[in-house]
Specification:
The structure is a single chain. The protein is built from eight helices and eight strands, in the order αααβββαββαβββααα. By secondary structure, the chain is an alpha+beta fold. It has a six-stranded antiparallel sheet. It has a two-stranded antiparallel ribbon with strand order 4-5. β1 (103-106) and β2 form a beta hairpin.
């Protein structure tokens, strides 16, 4: 009887022990299913695109700026033609060409200009380019920015115009002075408030007039390469010079065993002359030898007249090429 009771009491406990792991397994399974369902729900949830349009903007049938650009180019053309006729030779250039032993070869659209002539049994070829004038303009712009950088480093430039922080223009300027002028030496003449205007002062007027009359604007340096070849000989003598302010200054004197290397036309010719010994720097030569080489060029017409002609012709040709460029771009942009 007692054992029967124990058996009856033990049955619920056994069932509880058996059902408890199953319940726990069911709970764990339910949790896994819940996690998977929520993960699936998040993954399956649709994502909407950002609120902006990726469709291509419809292009106008004609450029909206074309007409304005063509008008501006035409305005620049008229301005250049009013300033100077691009087809009219300056008197200095015309005078040189009329009396020079050299014949000029100027191809429109090309930067280089070639002069050819003969001296005895020699063929002389002189080459210069308008690229020197363009590079000079770029150097001037670079110098301007360098000067501004110096002002910035010193902390004196407050408005980007190179003025000191106290609003004065520098030099000997005083805060109590209102009438000022600049002398030819670069200093500033200061007049007190009760003085006459700078334009009426004899002191400043004399300085300005002396500067205008006594100082001429220097010409820009132009490279001039002179190549001399002789009939019956394979070699070539090439002399690199600078023409400026009516003077021819020799930079280098080269000798090429093959005349074709003096003016290479192919990459092979350029490579062939790269490792050649062409001669020492001109400044290292004996002074008497330098003088004789200068006389050598002068005898062949590479002289003061040529040194004055080259910068004038470079300026003339650059103007013509610029006008041609303006005209070509305008015709390309303008559909009429």
């Amino acid at each position: 009887m007692l054992s029967f009771r124990a058996l009856v009491r033990s049955i619920p406990r056994a069932v509880t022990r058996i059902s408890a792991p199953a319940a726990r397994n069911h709970t764990i399974l339910h949790r896994h299913l819940t996690v998977l369902q929520s993960s699936w729900t998040r993954t399956a949830k649709p994502r909407f695109a950002a609120a902006f349009s990726t469709s291509r903007t419809a292009w106008a049938s004609e450029g909206q700026v074309d007409e304005e650009l063509a008008a501006k180019l035409e305005s620049e053309l008229q301005l250049e033609r009013e300033m100077r006729d691009p087809d009219e030779l300056p008197l200095s250039v015309k005078d040189y060409l009329d009396n020079s032993p050299y014949k000029i070869h100027d191809t429109p659209g090309k930067e280089e200009v070639v002069l050819t002539g003969q001296y005895g049994d020699e063929n002389i070829r002189i080459v210069f380019s308008i690229a020197d004038l363009n590079s000079l303009d770029q150097d001037a712009d670079a110098d301007k920015y360098d000067d501004r950088a110096l002002y910035d480093e010193d902390g004196d430039d407050v408005d980007g115009a190179g003025l000191p922080s106290d609003g004065q223009s520098g030099g000997a300027q005083s805060k109590g002075a209102i009438a000022t002028g600049r002398t030819k030496g670069g200093n500033i003449n200061v007049a007190p408030e009760d003085s006459v205007a700078p334009a009426d002062r004899d002191e400043l007027a004399d300085d300005e007039s002396a500067g205008e009359e006594g100082e001429q604007e220097p010409s820009f340096p132009a490279r001039v390469n002179v190549t001399v070849t002789k009939k019956g000989k394979k070699g070539a003598l090439q002399i690199e010079t600078i023409a400026q302010d009516g003077a021819i200054v020799i930079d280098n004197v080269y000798y090429y065993p093959d005349a074709k290397l003096a003016d290479p036309k192919t990459a092979e010719q350029e490579l062939a002359r790269r490792d050649m010994y062409l001669g020492p720097p001109f400044g290292n030569l004996d002074e008497d030898l330098q003088v004789i080489l200068e006389r050598y060029l002068d005898e062949r017409g590479v002289n003061t007249a040529l040194a004055l002609f080259v910068p004038d012709y470079v300026d003339y040709k650059e103007q013509r090429e610029y006008v041609r460029w303006l005209n070509d771009v305008r015709n390309f942009v303008d559909d009429e």
